[in-house]
Queue: 2 jobs
Job 1
Amino acid sequence: MRLGHRVERDKRITSHLGLTARAFGADEILLSGEEDETPLETWRSVSKRFGGSLECGYEPKPMRWLRSFSKDGGKIIHLTMYGEPWRKKSEKIPFEGRVAVVVGGTKVPGELFGISDYNIAVGNQPHSEVAALAVFLDTWLGEADPGRFSDGEVEVIPSESGKNIVSKGKE
Ligand code: SAM
């Protein structure tokens, strides 16, 4: 979940955040803050072309959504520079059940610290939500199984030099 999106200021970073979430294993992205179709369109179009069954949508009341998610047994991981060290804590966070990873944009509501099951810091210095998400997901989950993206229109074949993209004939 992306909190506090601002249409003008966060245009590119929110798009990158969702693409990073997708690439590192998320199966759903929720946008909140100012309503904006642009990142949703980007995420959908990348998923169509490169594969995977990514869901994405806009959530107007993110804190209400998170309270209800938590009440229903979901676990909340809040990425914040004020949290506990990610390397030590990641191994203690189980993979089972539903998990929401929350990142902020502007100042996050204080309540988030209390309703989160884990407040996790990727270092205790301020940096970027995209960097925090990538580093945390890589440590916690490892790289997403490449099989997740096998239903795309194209597939990127790892190459030592140059681009190798295979078309799956769906374009
Ligand atoms: N000034 C904002 C505040 O007071 O919450 C923080 C803005 S920061 C650019 C945006 C988001 O990046 C934060 O809400 C957090 O999710 C993430 N972030 C930034 N630095 C982080 C860190 N060291 N560890 C974990 N997450 C971090």
Job 2
Amino acid sequence: MTTSTLQTAENPRTDGYHLAVDALKLNDIQTIYGVVGIPITDLARLAQASGIRYLGFRHESDAGHAAAAAGFLTKKPGVCLTVSAPGFLNGLVALANATRNCFPMIQISGSSERHLVDLKQGDYEELDQLAAAEPFAKAAYRVSRVEDIGLGIARAIRTAVSGRPGGVYLDIPAAVLGEVVDAAAGAATLRRVVDPAPRQLPAPEAVDRAIELLAGAQRPLVVLGKGAAYAQADDQIREFVESTGIPYVPMSMAKGLLPDGHPQSAATARSLALRRSDVVMLVGARLNWLLNHGQAPQWNPDAKFIQVDIAPEEMDSNQPIAAPLVGDIGSVFDLLAERAKPGQIAAPAAWRDELAARSARNVAKMAERLKADPHPMQFIGALKAVRDVLHEHPEVYLVNEGANALDTARNVIDMQVPRHRLDSGTWGVMGIGMGYAIAAAVEKGAPVVAVEGDSAFGFSGMELETICRYQLPVVTVVLNNGGVYRGDDVNPLETDPSPTTLMPEARHDQMIEAFGGKGYRATTPADVAAALTDALAAGGPALIDCAIDPSAGTESGHIAHLNPKGITVGNIASPEQ
Ligand code: ADP
């Protein structure tokens, strides 16, 4: 390894900055996403000079989301670098979101003088960052001595990627970064983590228990979650699904693990599959709100669950798990293949036919909806155009957030390749768009299309400048209906715009032009298709502002039922009425 340490003096010395960079390089960290300022500017400079790619953002939240997405895509921790207090706090949303989504990420923040913070003497950007980070991270560590930098970084890396991956906070006080030590002694403190995410195997009897359940099932179903995508066990999963004939339903970020058009996909008969299945095998998917906690009426109340997950505490968190398979997905599927007798697990034809019939009916219904081409443009029309163009470009990474923009795109745009869809995830969070898109472009060197509701886009829109500065192949498609959910809500007092109203006449395409990117305005699906085709061919930063009917969209999209049902919701009357 080429170290960043200054070795030229007769008495070679190094400091905390150099040791931090050397420790990251020693552990193959190749990219840092961040926002510079006191006290970490020189850390970023030095990282860059030492060959680590540094991507400078406009807001720490976006840098953090990029680091989290990098973790999901690569199985290595993405690193986000922030300044102290406010910058640190801005990064915390992303750190918490990474932890909730089980993405490995490390937020490294500089911090103020410990003795001033602890006695609350009012230092510049004073905050007890370690304590603040603790509830939002898988773990939080502070390095208090320069000779512990290597240890701190090694611990952060192992904690982020081992077991259930998550976000780790690493606090490095400014004084530690600036501390000077003997170069050889400093170098001797660094360590390379061996096998940071070791394989974890379930016991043979746990595997046999699951095999027996599946073998006796009349209506088995596999649910693939984003943990299955993360695990990069694509071949084993596919082999299991195809050799057993079990129908499967992909969660949104598991789309493409098997191509969406796969004959065993029950995505287009999802409700029936959940309601009728008698043995459900969850693979890297939690029975959380996204799966209605495994409860009736969405699920068969008599269903038995098998859960494949690396986190033992996930078992029984919602429904009783009849066959827990605690281990990493690759190892679990290796063992299933090894221990099941040929033909022992086979999905009955009647069940497969039942789902296929429902799928055919639903696909025909959807085809009718897709055929319609109303004006002004609706979400579905714009997204059909995006889908048709992306059919020709399966290598494109798709980022997706919004309410209706998310729900509709998830149903309309099918995925062909694993880990090519990144979206709002477990929290249903808005603001991941540009950060995730930048990470996909940087980590994979591939084109990215970010399909964004106009409201969702606003949270990270300033990163268009970042995309243009680094000339990244990101095409942002803004579905602009002029509002949060929809753009036609009115304030009964006729003063300010309503709480959900944005500007329908906003021209997001002109925003990217301010930074030298290519802007397009689309008012019909044909415009959308032409613009996207052109932008992908050009291969540079672009934004397509799609004028969507302001009355299109439903409040809260598919999750309107999560709004509390007070007497006034959606029915606010003016005082005069
Ligand atoms: P989705 O939202 O797609 O349903 P979740 O985020 O709810 O997915 O679930 C992902 C699950 O995958 C988590 O419970 C996590 O512990 C698990 N997981 C992550 N990586 C692995 C792995 N390599 N092997 C097994 N389980 C994993």
